[in-house]
Amino acid sequence: MRLTDFWTRLGEAFGPAYAASIARDQVLSELGGRTIEQALAAGVETHVVWRAVVAAYPDRVPARLR
């Protein structure tokens, strides 16, 4: 998954402002206790980060974006 696709999906699932907040502030255990931004900066593959988002917010991410 390209990084632009990742950000588009995150924005579609949460809305642009909330997506930015989640990426910056929400620590996910699935990412080793890092935020989305920290995981991406550390070189974690975007598809791995996206799977972590889906696992953390299963009711929020629509099936078409999974």
TrEMBL record:
Please name the InterPro entries in this protein's record: DUF3046 (IPR021408)
Q: Which protein is depicted? A: DUF3046 domain-containing protein
Highest classification ranks of the organism: Bacteria, Bacillati, Actinomycetota, Actinomycetes, Micromonosporales
